[in-house]
Write a structure and sequence with these properties.
single chain, 404 residues, Aspartate Aminotransferase, domain 2, Aspartate Aminotransferase, domain 1, 3-stranded antiparallel sheet, 38% helix, cysteine desulfurase activity
Length: 404
């Protein structure tokens, strides 16, 4: 039987050997909050992981908080910063773009239209950040002030297209105005250099399983002076911003995976950029194909060597008008390839990506989307095989037609 090809690293990356070793080494650890010897041992592991992650991401140890997922980290940050700004200054405007991941987008939706809550009117006003044709958010249009603006939030790397946001341009003005800022860096951490101090943002969210760590381990970087009124209540274990017993095994494995990802970042960037170029060439050879991922600029390493933001080399996002995304991924699945459309399905119904429609892509075209994302598990043979398969798969999907 032919080995399956995994091309959905943006959704979840395979567990790194370093993470497996850390999980095995810490398997016997118990409650890190315990005031007894075994508790102190578990706590040391957590604090060592916190310090290691902080050093890798340019943050102080106290600024590194463990959560249950990247989604939870985003929600704590978005809701907490907004409520903190409302309480401190009466600020009510939230600036976010229509291409945000649902972890941010739906949190903003709830704040600006809290359906089911006994409040006479929304607590916050949404001010949409416009996006350009590549799906990158544009800066806030107009001046910002702490008395009016509760939050500016933007994703660093788009989870569908892989395109990288110009954070300095989008977030920078808010940082300069002391307006609370959040960055969804779930797709960036472990793939791009991160220096939390230099960014100057209030909070930043990440997820361990995106860079080869375990699932259900999120990271929230929160500046010491960030005014976060956390929606999570309980024991207050993580600076009173995230309650719940910290997972020492997950913390250790996340730190080990992040160290490995950072150590190989430049080499992996170059390797995957070669794969991206091959995949893009095949996609563009298919009639009427539309490509959304900006290719990595020649000579551009992980640290960036171009004025063009570019994209992560791991992503290739495209559409094939006349085909259904569901048909594409089912045909690839039957051929032994794991891939995705890039957008979430609801009740098994393929819907046009909110990212693509925000970019101005017609629904008919957006419904034929396919996302291929590579990573450490990808081999030259995998790319040979998908390059050979893709044109025929698109022909079959187009022959099957669209749902309407």
């Amino acid at each position: 039987m032919t080995t399956r090809i995994y091309l959905d690293h943006a959704a979840s990356a395979p567990l790194r050997p370093e993470a497996v070793e850390a999980l095995d080494r810490t398997a016997a650890l118990l409650n890190p909050a315990g005031q007894y010897a075994s508790g102190r041992a578990a706590s040391r592991i957590v604090e060592d992981a916190r310090e290691q992650i902080g050093a890798l991401l340019g943050a102080d140890r106290a600024e590194v908080l463990f959560t249950g997922s990247g989604t939870e980290a985003d929600n704590i940050a978005v809701q907490g910063l907004a409520f903190g700004a409302l309480r401190a200054h009466g600020a009510r405007r939230i600036h976010s773009s229509p291409v945000e991941h649902p972890a941010v987008g739906e949190a903003v939706d709830w704040l600006c239209d809290p359906a089911g809550l006994p409040v006479p009117e929304p607590l916050f006003d949404r001010v949409p950040l416009t996006v350009d044709a590549t799906g990158r958010p544009r800066p806030v249009d107009g001046p910002l002030s702490v008395s009016d603006d509760a939050l500016v939030t933007a994703m660093w790397v788009n989870n569908e297209t892989g395109n990288i946001t110009d954070l300095a341009g989008v977030i920078g003005p808010a940082v300069a105005a002391d307006v609370p800022t959040h960055v969804d860096a779930v797709q960036a951490v472990g793939h791009l250099p991160v220096d939390f101090r230099t960014l100057g943002v209030s909070t930043l969210a990440a997820s361990a399983h995106k860079f080869g760590g375990p699932k259900s381990v999120g990271l929230l970087l929160a500046r010491r002076d960030a005014a976060v009124q956390s929606p999570v209540r309980g024991g207050g274990q993580e600076r009173r911003l995230r309650s719940g017993t910290v997972n020492p095994q997950g913390a250790a494995a996340a730190a080990a995976a992040l160290q490995a990802a950072v150590d190989e970042m430049d080499a992996e960037h170059a390797r995957l950029a070669g794969y991206q170029a091959r995949l893009l060439a095949v996609a563009r050879s298919i009639p009427d194909a539309v490509v959304y991922t900006d290719p990595v600029a020649d000579g551009q390493g992980a640290s960036g060597a171009s004025d063009v933001p570019g994209a992560l080399p791991s992503h290739v996002h495209m559409s094939f008008p006349g085909a259904e995304g569901d048909s594409l991924i089912m045909l690839l699945d039957a051929a032994g390839v794991d891939a995705s459309t890039g957008s979430a399905c609801s009740a098994g119904v393929n819907r046009a990506s909110h990212v693509l429609t925000a970019m101005g892509v017609e629904v008919h075209t957006a419904r034929g989307a396919l996302r291929l994302t590579t990573g450490p598990a990808t081999t030259d043979g995998d790319i040979d095989r998908i390059c050979a398969l893709l044109p025929g798969v698109v022909d079959q999907a187009r022959a099957a037609g669209t749902a309407y």
